[in-house]
Amino acid sequence: MKSVLITYDQAHQDNVMDALDASNVRGYTILEQAGGRGTKTGVPHLGSHAWPSMNSAIITMVEDAQVTPLLNRLHQLDIDNPLLGLRAFVWNIEQCI
User: Domains of the chain (ranges plus CATH)?
Assistant: First the structure.
């Protein structure tokens, strides 16, 4: 089992949800109003007067076989909209109850 953390510009919300549905990912937690800045070229998303946009994040636990299809869909979304910003991180899950 893997954990996938997806951070994205809020403008991606519907497309990220479509990627989860298309990858048969049912369980997740949405963290709205997440601030941050990309590591390479991203501008801050801080919800302030100077940087008004915001990010969101989704964390989900999925079976190993679901990871690659989900990451492929998310990567294509990022390629199609490079100025918005989207990242996904994967961790091994040792135990889940």
Answer: 2-92 (3.30.70.120)
